Amino acid sequence: MQIKSIEELKKIREKSMKKVNLREHGEVSGDQVEVLVGMATCGIASGARETLNAIVDEISKEHIENVKVIQVGCIGHCHSEPIVQINVPGQKPILYGKVDDEKGREIVKKHIKNGEPLKESIIEDTFDRA
Ligand code: FES
User: Fold this and answer.
1) Which atom of ligand 1 is least distant from the CA of 42?
2) How far is the CA of 79 from the centre of ligand 1 (A)?
3) Are 40 and 82 in contact (CB under 8 A)?
4) Which pLDDT tens digit goes with each residue over 68-120?
5) CA pair distance 37, 81, nearest whole angstrom
6) What DSSP line would sit under 50-115, residue for residue?
7) What's the pLDDT score for residue 129?
8) Residue 117, strand partner residues
């Protein structure tokens, strides 16, 4: 991308600052729930692909529409892979560990659909959004 003027540069900066603010507050805006699935090598080796497929399948079976499933790299908890992070608008992100396909489906049904996080599977719920 070529920046042609100071004005253009300012606009880009403003846009980036908005994103930074969003990150500082650690909350998702809008009405979309984000499902981040860690797909680093450690995740894939632990079955993250099956988890991802199960989550996508369950979302479609349950006819849930306001969800975005995103494949991400390292989330930083190799020992607890597969890792899934759920970002619900207006709430702190929740990080789940050891999410196999069955647990992935449960997260969709309980947390995403009914708003009830699976407490026993949470590895972190006090951090800001990555
Ligand atoms: S490489 Fe495994 S979580 Fe980063």
Assistant:
1) 2
2) 8
3) no
4) 999 999 888 889 999 999 999 988 999 999 999 999 999 999 999 999 999 99
5) 10
6) HHHHHHHHHHHHTT--SEEEEEES--S-GGG-S-EEEE-BTS--EEE-S--HHHHHHIIIIIIITS
7) 55
8) none
* pLDDT 10s digits, 18-65: 554 444 444 555 789 999 999 999 999 999 999 999 999 999 999 999
Q: Is 99 exposed, middle or buried (0-12, 13-18, 19+ CB in 10 A)?
A: buried
Whole-number Å distance between alpha carbons of 40 and 71: 9
Q: Whose CA is nearest to atom 2 of ligand 1?
A: 78
Q: Which two tokens stand for residue 100?
A: 């196999």
Q: Which residues on adjacent β-strands are paired with residue 68?
A: 34
